[in-house]
Here is the input.
Amino acid sequence: MRLSFRGIQEPDAASSIVIGFVLLLVIAAATLGIWAAVGLPELMKEQDEHTFRELQRSFLQYKLAADTLRVQENYDAAVGFILPKTQGLTFRVVTDTGGKLSIVTDDDFGNTTTLRIGRVSAEAAGFSGKRSVVTYESGGIHLKTAGRNPAWTTPALMQISPVAPTAARIEIGSISFTGNSEISGNGHLPVTMMLQGSAARTLYWKDNATIQFQSPDAEQRKLWEDVFFETKERIATGSTFTIDQTDPLTLRLETKTNTTLSEIILREAVYATGPAEIIYA
Here is the structure.
């Protein structure tokens, strides 16, 4: 028996080129698919992290400028900075968040001093779609990233120091803003700020004082709980601080003797702040 191989033909050059081209397309598509599934999300994540760091730096500049204007009582200078370019950027000024501090001292005839809490924030969706928020509130900065609770990166202006063996001084920053505003876009966002007013008030207490915080926002309440506990850690000699975490959140201050008056100093500042037009570049 003889076998014939005449039916089997070698592929011609044109067929080889077509087959090779198709294989290259398949390999390229597979490579792009892998990059889209693995490399692209990682690239977007890195870009968002870089942008968010820039956003934090911008808000640190905002805080430092606000502190400088307040300390120098400079009402003539307008300070500006530019938020970084990112996807879904929203800048907000809120004069009243619903949160408030209430202060009662035994040397003020039981009168209550109330401070309303305002804030300035920037929220970015980013390329990955995971929203992050940077906020300036009561002289401090706190951050919130996707899936996490907000946390202070620079503390709110609530500081304690001893003024005598049996007395304490608490300084509280009362930062407010002249009006609500909001603007959104994807471009660079310039923001300006001017100091409109500043003052300092002193409340005295002999044996006890109470500072309470209330807010309809659970996240804001948790932030101020952290402020209270941080204040308690810096307790003055001869004073006792207790915290009640029920609503309203309460910080109670007591001294062992009333030979020296303790102080609560309210450092108040009012700012006019807001965005200009978004710069697309």
